[in-house]
Write the structure tokens for this entry.
Amino acid sequence: MIEPGHARPEWADRLQAFVARELGIREPLAFERILGGQSNPTWFVDAGSQGLVLRMQPSGELLPSAHALDRESRVIRALEGTSVAVPRVLVYSEDRSVVGTTFYLMERIDGRVFPYARLDGVGAPERRAMYRTAAQMLAKLHAVDWERAGLSDYGKHEDYFGRQVRRWSRQWEASRRREIPDLDRLIEHLPNLLPKENPTTICHGDYRFGNLMYAPVSSDVVGVLDWELSTLGDPMGDVGYFCMPYYVPSTEHEGIAGLDHAALGIPSQSELVADYNAALGVTSELLPFHIAFAFFRFAVIVAGIEDRAQRGNAAHPDAGKSFGRADQYSRIACELLGI
């Protein structure tokens, strides 16, 4: 979504000088602010015949390890040349004198982005195909040899869910502004419910339809976007996260629970997991824990958005509307785990 009526950013001339110096681009730049994500501000940058995308950190005080654009740009570069569809990163810069934060520029790719799992505006056969290609693209990511890709040090290779539970528990404490009893209940119980680990893969960390770009006239995924939360870990973390909409009421933007899935061409959760397993050539079991963990982590992320909104440095103008969602997601996770 493009922000309507936006003003030319105050750092536009500095970025113009930067791209001329670093990339040899001298055409006048035009800017469009992209809404939709709640984390790192994103802009379309029109450089004449070349389309760019600018990703930058939000302004103000940030939580430790959050908004890690260096990791995001690194994994995208590592995946260039693999079967995973990613845009090409042109430059990463830690020079805060340009736009006020660290940032990177990548090539803009053309296609369609559907913010929510309903995939509004397409027919049932295409919707079914789009779910299948999304599952297949996730399998392609998890099949990448992360050692050969130069990512051996991109994350630890064991105790993924244990480390993640500890990390997001700390994040919650760092952004806590009010009490969410179900979130505290999850922090108490999750360490005792950790499942057996699957072999380590590259994990996207935020794999959902809003971060996939589809070809203009087909069901092919032509771009996987927003790699800020990527790491090495258990692939079922991504699969569980991708299945979250099945548990969110269809009365909310993100949810498909309660819809007539068969009529809409939406596969059942088991069919979606089967598509993923068939593409990967393995049989991995999706457990309630994997989905509950996804809701737990997303609850902490939404609580952080709420915190940034109250501090005035949220990336999205509608960030204040996130209030209460952390409570809902924590409650769903508790119900999945029976705690």
